[in-house]
Automatic annotation (TrEMBL):
Primary role: Catalyzes two steps in the biosynthesis of coenzyme A. In the first step cysteine is conjugated to 4'-phosphopantothenate to form 4-phosphopantothenoylcysteine, in the latter compound is decarboxylated to form 4'-phosphopantotheine. Catalyzes two sequential steps in the biosynthesis of coenzyme A. In the first step cysteine is conjugated to 4'-phosphopantothenate to form 4-phosphopantothenoylcysteine. In the second step the latter compound is decarboxylated to form 4'-phosphopantotheine.
Positions annotated to bind CTP: D281, K291, P308, D309, V310, L311, F332, K346, K350
Reactions this protein catalyses: N-[(R)-4-phosphopantothenoyl]-L-cysteine + H(+) = (R)-4'-phosphopantetheine + CO2; (R)-4'-phosphopantothenate + L-cysteine + CTP = N-[(R)-4-phosphopantothenoyl]-L-cysteine + CMP + diphosphate + H(+)
Name this polypeptide is given: Coenzyme A biosynthesis bifunctional protein CoaBC
Pathway of action: Cofactor biosynthesis; coenzyme A biosynthesis; CoA from (R)-pantothenate: step 3/5; Cofactor biosynthesis; coenzyme A biosynthesis; CoA from (R)-pantothenate: step 2/5
Family in the record: In the C-terminal section; belongs to the PPC synthetase family. In the N-terminal section; belongs to the HFCD (homo-oligomeric flavin containing Cys decarboxylase) superfamily.
Essential cofactor(s): Mg(2+); FMN
Amino acid sequence: MASQDGSRPRVVLGVGAGIAAYKACELLRLFTESGHEVRVLPTRDALRFVGEPTWAALSGNPVTSEVWESVHEVPHVRVGRWADLVVVAPATADIMARAAHGLAADLLTNTLLTARCPVVFAPAMHTEMWEHPATRANVATLRERGCLVIDPAVGRLTGADTGRGRLPEPAELFEVCRRVLAGRPRDLAGRRVVISAGGTREAIDPVRFIGNRSSGRQGYALARTAAARGAEVTLVAANVGLPDPAGATVVPVESALDLRAAVLAAAESADVVVMAAAVADFRPADPRDSKIKKVPGEPEPIRLAENPDVLAELCERRRRGAGPAPGVIAGFAAETDDVLANGRAKLARKGCDLLVVNQVGAGLAFGTPDNAAVVLVAGGDPVEIPRGPKEELADTVWDLVAARLRETAPGA
């Protein structure tokens, strides 16, 4: 995305005084190497973690935290007007408190008051600080004003502590910022979204399993784009070796039964469920406790048992009114032949609102960065999505989901 005047996209990178400031160096490099012009605005205390020469060398622009430098240029107003995006990473509890209450003690907080472009906060702090009622209230205030506040990741914090409060990986933060710069709407703000991704594994013995070729890339693209559009995302990930998308709570699972339990639990408070995982239809009925040894002759056959159909179960629960139910339920159907005919039959059988049907095999869909699909819409016309990046397909799916949510909203 270029600026309105056709120049390079202009980003203000605000840096808070947290140990995660070192990660912002990598985020800055991702911006500059992809053609963005970046001004870095560290707080005074942030310069205790990473010094001014580092930010200046990586950005190619002068760096200051003060409103009193180059006063004739009125930087506390000019920088905010200049930016196409302001991203604060790490966003400390202190910065978000000052932003929520309109305080302006330095150049960064002045810029946050004058910016009229999208603003993204990437919080990083100890779990206790993130969970404190004051921080939660400040986050809610910023979100109500239209800011995108990305939930922090779970992982290693300062010292030996572990919990929620870790800054998401820079590459994932960059992807969210890239989607925001592309002008995607914030039409999922306040919505709780559950996405399944990857491929389940059904144990034969402690060593072997029945699995499939799904990499989880499409489900992760759905999670990444939903977070950029403001959703609270729970990602149920089956055997996926990808970095956690920024802003998503990742629940790792292995088998179809594990996935069912995790999805049904998360769906109780969800507005939307998107079942993008490749879930095994069958599992070994009698998995062995020890490795099956190779012996001469015919191998013993593996007796299979049918796995539950999680998508159909979700739809049936909603139809019967059995407890809280998502407003929109979407599924994926991977087909190798008779793609549309099989997809239409599956849509009718499952009872979901949307079914994303794509052809797989021969290098298509599984494990690739691109995808193509037809979205079958209950009671509507199919929507064809041409081959392109999986994030583009994901955004089209969210366009359809958001429209469906508006149609089913009270008073619509």
